[in-house]
Each structure stands twice: as C-alpha cells, then as structure tokens.
Request: fold
Amino acid sequence: MTDQAIARSAPHHRFLWPVLATLLVISWSSGFVGIRYASEGASVMLVLFWRTLLSGFILLPFALTMGPRMSLRGVLGEMLFGVMSVFLYLGGFALAIEQRVPTGLVALISDLLPLAIACLSQPLLGERLTHRQWLGTAIAVAGVLLVSLESLSFGEAPFWAYGLTVGSMVVFALASVLYRRRRTKHMPVHQSLCIQTLTGSALFSLGALLQGNVAPPMTAEFVIGIAWLVLFATFAAYSIYYTSLRLFPVAQVSAVIYLSPPITMVWAWALFSEPLTATMFIGLAVTMVGIWMTARG
Reply:
C-alpha cells in the first residue's frame, strides 16, 4: 500500500495511532538494552558502526528489489537525513558519554526531543499547538524530570560536551520536522532506512578507526546487543517513527517519546533486576496525563 493510500485510510482507523504509539515507545526505549549488552567490551562508536552497518546491509537487497527505482536526488536526500538523524544524533550522544557527561543527563536531554519538535513545528510546518497542547507538553516534561531526578547528576566533562548533547537533540528534532515537511515523494521506509543507516555506518567507521579498529569483539554480549539494536532499536523504532510522521502531526508523534524514560526503567527492571521506585511511577502517571492532553488537543 502506498503512503498516500495509508494516509487516506488512517483517519478511519481509530486504533491505528494507539497501536503505533505503543509500538513506538516500546521499541524506542529498547535501545538501552542493546547498548547495555553490546558496550560491555566495545566502545560506543564501535557499537554504532556495527549497528548501522548490519542494518543497512540487511535492508539493501530489499531496497534494490522492492519498491520504486531510487533516483539520485532521492538517494542524496536520504543521505542528508542519515547524517542528521543517525550520525549526528546517535554519534553526538555517544561522544558526549565518552567525554564523561553523566548518562542520566544525556538521557534527560535526549528525552526532551518532543519539546524541541513542538517548538519547531509551528514556524516550519504551520502546525500550531493549542494552549491545551502546550499545557500537556509542560506536564509531560515535568513527568520526565520526575522520572530522571534520581539518576540526574552533573559530571566534570568539558563544557562543549554538554552543548553537544543539546545540539544532537536539536538536530534530530530539525530532521524530523524537515522529514514531515518534505515536498518530494517519500521513498518506502525500508529504502529510506537502508540509505540512512549505510550513510551513518560509513561515518561511524571513521570514528571507530580513530579509536583503534572496526573489528567486533566476538562475545555473546556483543552479538546479543547488536542483534537487539538492529531488530528493535533500528528496524522497529525508526520504521514506526517514520511511518507515523507520514500519517500524523509531528508534535503528536514525538510526544510519546516522553514515555521513554519510565519504559526504559521497566526494561532495566525486567532484564537487569534494577529497582523500580515510587518516583518513577509518579513520573509515569504525570507523563501519561501530559501526552493525553497533547494528543487530545
């Protein structure tokens, strides 16, 4: 089914958005699990290289044989999105963590992505948020702060590394808005994601080579982590995100990312026996109220 056909039918399927939103927040928050496994014996840059390389190569035969013929202009456009939404976004956070910016602070800034998208969507897309939606956004941000409060700290990283985390988040927000605004016909998601991940892998390879080499550590943890990142954090998360952007307002789609911190903590509790706290549940409830108000608006 084409994007246009899906878009026409989307408003008539009342459960489509709740299903997509649920799948998006589960897959988006699952990246923590893959990073936790894969980075046991490898640098974050090496993990990102293998994550994007395998993702691109797996999708390549489908991108070449299924869907319309790719034009040079279309490929170059997707490469630009790959630089922004894969290399600069993921790589910026990885570099910040390696510069000893506390992980809790990096996660908090990353999870403020919907706020940046809400601010950009009005001037660039003309998608004006109502007063109710801005109130919902403020409530959702408060919920994210509550969830992140216990893990929040300020380290001794260089000043530019803190700015890098904010810059990476803003770049992805801008890429999301531009993707929604795009005037040319969209490629099928599997073709877009193939080009974007291969572009990211080429750039990540340079970073990995500067740190040593690109050879993967052949450990069970690394294999499990990369497989998890490819299947869930890349194929599922990015595919659902891009599909949702084609069907629904960008601020509505991004708002569910506010649920990423508490769902990530549920992943950590289920797989790594990390404790759940009352503050997390309170933050989750507050965040869900904010997202409901944003969506209803």
Residues 3-296 form one domain. Confidence is low (pLDDT under 50) at residues 1-9. The two ends are 29 Å apart (CA to CA). The first helix runs from residue 3 to 9.
